[in-house]
Amino acid sequence: MIIHSAEFFKSSEKVIQCPDTLLPEYAFIGRSNVGKSSLINSLVNHKNLAKTSSTPGKTQLINHFLVNQNWHITDLPGYGYAKVSKAKKEGFGKMIEDYFLQRQQLQYTFVLIDSRLEPQKIDLEFINWLGENQIPLVLVFTKTDKLSRLKKEQNIAHYKTILLGYWEELPPIFITSAEKKEGMTEILDFIENNNLIYQP
Length: 200
Ligand code: GTP
Ligand code: MG
Fold this sequence. Notes:
This protein is an alpha/beta fold. The chain has five helices and seven strands; from the N terminus they run ββαββαβαβαβα. It has a single domain, classed as P-loop containing nucleotide triphosphate hydrolases (Rossmann fold, 3-Layer(aba) Sandwich). Strands 1-3-4-2-5-6-7 form a seven-stranded mixed sheet, sandwiched between helices. The longest helix is centred in the middle third of the chain and has 17 residues. The chain is globular and about 45 Å long. About 30% of the residues are buried. The mean pLDDT is about 90. Bound molecules: guanosine-5'-triphosphate and magnesium ion (MG).
């Protein structure tokens, strides 16, 4: 898919405030600092569309971006950031949960996983929660430029083994670096193919 345009569309605190359109939508989520905003910017060839920062917890709303005038990306708050207050964390939890359970336009959830880390409990819990609620997901391993080729392959193979302990089938998997622009074509092709068969 060629990106002709990408623009910020709306920030919402609640799912009922999300854009009232029937465009197909793809959500990006993961632990704080996993590289969501960087991945989104890299996907749509835009340096600063989604705000990136080295301070975790920057994205605190449901942010909609409109791409090529015919589909949406949503950038969701990172989960598992310890320094936000407990009340706020529960708020994020409810906001995220409502979004996933109620957003009809949602096609796939892209769960971002830091390729450098051992499988994290919070990621596995979230992936399993999506699975139990029959919300289609794909996995995106991020920041692979920070690993050697061998270490990258070992970590991803290990992750797959852990997931196969829970699920019979693995979701689609993308291996990416926002920095090196790796894996972007694959993700965009996946979205393009799904948009072709999408029926509101
Ligand atoms: P929150 O919105 O705070 O939850 O974070 P986020 O998941 O949106 O992460 P963000 O894109 O802001 O990136 C966090 C840090 O990781 C930044 O310092 C990025 O420059 C860095 N980063 C993101 N992607 C990559 C990558 O592919 N390679 C490398 N080397 N660094 C990356
Ligand atoms: Mg962000």
